[in-house]
Hints:
The structure holds 3 protein chains of 3 kinds.
Chain A lengths: L24 H11 L30 E2 L2 E2 L17 H68 L4 H56 L2 H44 L1 H29 L3 H107 L5 H71 L1 H49 L1 H33 L3 H25 L3
Antiparallel strand pairs in A: 1-2
Chain B lengths: L3 E10 L5 H9 L15 E9 L6 E9 L6 H5 L7 E7 L3 H5 L1 H11 L7 E6 L11 H10 L3 E4 L9 H25 L1
Parallel strand pairs in B: 1-3, 1-4, 4-5, 5-6
Antiparallel strand pairs in B: 2-3
Chain C lengths: L1 E2 L8 E5 L20 E2 L6 E21 L1 E9 L8 E7 L8 E22 L5 E11 L3
Antiparallel strand pairs in C: 1-8, 2-4, 3-8, 4-7, 4-8, 5-6, 5-7
Amino acid sequence: MSQRPPTSSRPTSGRAPGTAAGRQPGTATRLTTAMNPAAARPGSRGGQVAGGVALNSQVTVVDRPTTQQGLGGMKTAKPGQGRRQVMDKTYFLGQIRSKINELNAEVVRLTKEIENASDENSSFLAYEKRAEALASEIRDLQGELGDYNTLVDKLTTDEDIQDVEFDCNNLKSQNDRESKKIEEMFDIKKQKEDQIQLLETEMDQERRMADNVVNDMKPEMRQRYMQLKDLNEHLLRQLETGQQELDQLNTKTESLQEELSQSQVKQEAVRLYDQLHELEGKRSSLQEEARMRGTPAEERERLLKQVKEDNQEIASMERQTKEQQEKIDQMRDEITQLDLDIEENQGERNQKYKELKKREESMDEFLSTFDENKMQELTKISEVESNVVTLLENMSRNMGRFTNLPTPKDLMSMKEDLEFKEDEMKKSEMTTIELAAQRDKLQQDLAKMDQFEEKLHEEQVILQRKVADMEKELTTYGDLEKLRADAEEKKKKLMEDRVILQRRREVFKRLIQHLTIKYEGLKTQLNENETYTQLSNLEKKWQHHEQNNYTMKEFISARTMECDYTPISRRVNSIMDHFNAKLQTHMAGKTSY
Amino acid sequence: MPTILRAKCIVAGDAGVGKSSICQVFHSDSAQFPKNYTMTTSVELLVKPVNIPDSRDQVEMYMYDSAGKEIFSENVIKFWDHPSVVMIVYDVTDETSFSSCIKWLERVRAMKSQTNIPGVLIANKIDLDQRRLISPKEGKDLAMSNGLEYFECSAKEMQNVDTPFFYMAHEFHKMYQERLQVYSSLA
Amino acid sequence: MFDVALASGGAQIALSTSSDDSHPPEHMIDGTDETFWTTTGLYPQEVIVRFQALMSINSVELSSYDVQNIALETSESDSIDSFEPLAEKEVERTDHQLQTVEVSVGERRAQCLRIIINSGYDHFVAVHRLKVNGKALHG
């Protein structure tokens, strides 16, 4: 069986040449026409594929496949692709059999699907129940979780258990109150229901009474009553139907209005109809006027009458308005007068009120500061009392001493003695100072003496050594001959050395010359070498660059050092640790229950 | 007559740590400090005699100020045969220069592996205190674990630049004296 | 055949790259192992010994310490330019013992002998004795 072409795409057999891409730009254009109704034109929008994929090839897209003969219709699969050419009975039988097989297969498939669906349904019910059970479990657990969370919060915020119990009690009392409220509401509701019941029973009773009355009425009255009742019902029904019609018509008008608002033509038509209406109305009015018009005189009279009537009306209305205005003014005057009176009274009272208020404020202030002042005054009093006590004690002591006071003569003598003794004391003080200074001096002298002694000792030792050396030298210098011989020897040796060294120097010089010549030769050779000059130039350039590099690096590191926050952060952290430790110790000391 | 010893002192370290500055400051007796960075290509030779205290002898320090850039390392190694003393320099504000010290030391010691080459480890640029990343303790530990003596200096401030050279000269002189003892005992 | 590099035989040190007064290069040519010449650091070091007269030398012997590589050159005249290489030798290290370096040469005419110490096992090197076997050339 040939493939059924997928519903969303074009068949590939009718493709026009040039679509090399193997994609289906036809669909693309279709999509774009759906998306931009204003701008899309099949063929020109081939470049704007909805997916944003760029079309590389120059595609001339056509919507309808064309053959050489012009537009062709949708081509189904050509015959000759596996079908028989001769169509006779056996062919059709074969076809029918194949179709029957297909149908059977479809039937089987559908039954299987039905079974699956039913299974799934049943399982779905089971799953739903499980889901419900799990949801309820989840709700319970969430409630528990909430409880635990609150517990953890309470623990982390170090709340006392008393606070927690307090909160708990609060919540309980709140709950009780609310349950009570609910009960009350429930009671109220019950009451209302009872009331409703009562009313209903009363209503029934009244109806029965009415029926009784009706039954007791005379037959004529009853007939009229019945007639009226029927008429009432009839009218009610008419009312209902009329209402329904009205509703219908309303909905219809609404829908028509909507239609109208959507289509402009109809709006135009409506407008024109309205205009027509107006004009017809005008026309009819004008026609009436034309009919009603009499002679010009009659018209004038009529108009005059109308004018007079209108004037009269105007005059009466003006009078009325004036009266009303006067009334309004009067009322306003009265209001202002009353206000003034009130204010006068209020004024006096207001002042009194303000005074009283001020006094109250001062009294409050006084009361608040009263305690402090009282404490201060009390402390002052106690201090003063203690002062007084001490002074009294002093006085009493001095009074006691009065008895031992000497006579004035004795006093004078005692004063003289005192002065004398003071002088003596001063003198002795000065002598002590002087003696101390002398003592220091003498001690220093003693120390210096000690040093001198040491130095003398050392000098003595040195001198003794010198004496020994000198004695030795004496012996050596005594032996002049030996000295001379030694000197001669030394001189000879030095001369020899000199000769040797001179010769060596010569040799050295020659060697150095030899080496320098070699070195100079090498140097010139090197300088002549182009590669060397190039290299040295490049090296110089490199040195220059390296210098720049280095200064940059130094600059960068200096700057980064400025922005370096690590020491500050370290300091901050250490201070924080300090502070936390102190807090901990403080808290540990505080909580003791 | 005073004896003049000659010591070949190889100054090695990463590029830009301050080897040329140290050598020039020492050579000019703290007279001049090169303010601009001039990259050393290959090796610069500077000679300066150092007096040994308590003796009339002098040690001429032949300072082979070597280039620090890796590109020149092959070239520079050619100048490094028979080193007498070694000076490894690193920059206290640059951690890579500190970690390459061992590399330089090994390279120098490989030139003469049979003998012990006395050496010093120099921590340069100590004037950049805020940028200092390597503590003296680390430097001292590295020096001690590699048989070097640790010195800190600032070529820019011309501070403590002479001390390592004096130490090296002294060590060299000491070695010479020891050798003389050995030679005397052979006869 | 005798040791032509003896100071008592008229040999002189024409040039020495290291000179310590207490251990001058003359100690090499004094014929005894007790005194020695020491280098004062750095390599290469060299000593030029000048014989009394033009000699024909057969072998060179050195008693030294801590020498690693030694090279010998000879020159028939006093001038520096005419030194010709004679031999080069690697010497083994001996701890606490003198090294003896022997170089046989065949017949070589020489007025000056140049000893170049290219490298040593330590910073310094000592040469205790230098012995050059040869005979004087007459004419």
